[in-house]
Amino acid sequence: KGNGMIGNIYSMGLALQALEATRKFYAPRKWDCAQAFSVVSAHDYQQPMAISQVLPALVGRSYLDVAGLDCAATKGMSPSQQLPLSPVLGTHGVPRAHIEVHYSITNMLQGKHFHYSTSVTVPSGSTLLQVMEVAAEENPQTFSFQTEQTSWGTYVTSIHGLAASTDDRTYWQFLSAGDALQEGVGIYKPHDGEHIQAVFSTY
């Protein structure tokens, strides 16, 4: 794409690794990676799987280099541990400000069509998943949902009793201002007044 994106933000890691590892085979022109790397550098990756794919490219390596790594050099090292922030309290224990998020679910694709909207109040910095949980607590008849954990984070499998299906090629797509979210529900943090749409879609 013109802005340096290759697929989407989550496919960038493997794409950059592949292009860097095979750059000498490109002819008659060289691959200009600066724009693609600027896209990656500007994104706040939080999912372990996405980080594990983009980090090698950022340090000028690819998964092909794994066989030649000297693991003995890192023996005894362990990652630093950080306490998670409270969803209600900020970094200094001060109550966080609240925001209002507008949330709607829509199915115009299968079975009985429906469209429901609500507004929920959550602490600033809450994820979309937390917004959905509040909506489901306030109105479980309408906004109940189900998820499953994947290596890419939380995946929404069903909303309002309508489940996604690989056989039917259907899924729940999340949008803001008509654009698909680039982050999953467990990572994306809506801003005050934002309207998030969950639309039952096909691919």
Automatic annotation (TrEMBL):
Cyanocob(III)alamin binds at residues 8, 53, 155-156, 181, 203. Gene3D superfamilies: 1.50.10.20, 2.170.130.30. GO terms for cellular component: extracellular space. Residues 125-197 form the Transcobalamin-like C-terminal domain. The keyword Transport applies. One of its GO terms (molecular function) is cobalamin binding. The keyword Signal applies. It comes from the Eukaryota. Its main location: secreted. GO terms for biological process: cobalamin transport; cobalt ion transport. It is found in: Secreted. Belongs to the eukaryotic cobalamin transport proteins family. This is IF factor. The gene is Gif_0.
